[in-house]
Predict the structure of BD-FAE-like domain-containing protein.
Amino acid sequence: MIYKMNMKPAALLAILLAGVLSSPFAANAQDGPRSKLPPPDFANVSYGPHARNVMDVWLAKSAKPAPLLLYFHGGGFRAGDKGNLWPAVLREALGAGITVAAANYRLSPDVSFPGHYMDCARALQFARHSAKAWNIDPARVALIGSSAGAGTSLWIAFHDDLADRESDDPVARESTRVSCVVVAGAQPTYDPRVIREVAGEAASRHQALVSMYGLKPGEADSEKAHRLYGQAAPITYLTKDDPPVYAYYTEPKTAVPPSSRAGTGIHHPNLGLYLKKHMDALNIECVVAHKSDGHNFPAEGVAFMKKHFGL
């Protein structure tokens, strides 16, 4: 069932922050081989109080304010690093005049849902607050990520604005709305019941689908768990005013046998088609691309941003 919370952003933010953070999702095979990233213009900029609340920033060469691309890494909400940013994406974006930032966020077992989401929302707000210092256009911001970082990007993009206009903190007053989203191996839901239906039994047995919520043994099918599944699913918040999405997948399109290793299929392209079905129903652009069809994620993803940035 798809629902949307009817609650003021400030009140919702308080509730979400009250629920301490813990999550996991397998490191994403969507990313491909890494090569060394060039040194950022600003390294390990602190956007929050935790040691992992840091980001790197590469500035586009632009006389006028540049659009911003903000990256969130994969790794099951329990691993990963901002250094996993695709070098080709960075190169393509900077070449197109887009400033790039990559953020870390807290990991389980230190935190559970919704902590990682809220860290990333804070990173976005901090980047907007730094618009003048970084020469960026706060009206043109895109999110990008893989696996857990992709789901986080979708959750923030579809969620009602988390800005707290009455806050004494100027960062918290910044908007979390974005122009578009580019993701790889994205999960539009973290509800194991929906994952089972869409991506297969093996995918629904991914350990992260329990541990990301900080659930105790035996709680996976409880009322508490079902409530959390709905709150954590990006698709829950999708409405007709939400931004367009480019979603890329590399896992085989074929069905995953139920006897497969637990977690197999957690990046299945059927999850992208599930997202597209819901976005198409609202007439929101959703492009689902697969590596086997010859699609190039860095080039096409940045081209998608350029279109929605008006470049």
Notes: The longest strand covers residues 136-146. The CA atoms of residues 24 and 208 lie 4 Å apart. Residues 1-29 have pLDDT under 50 and may be disordered.
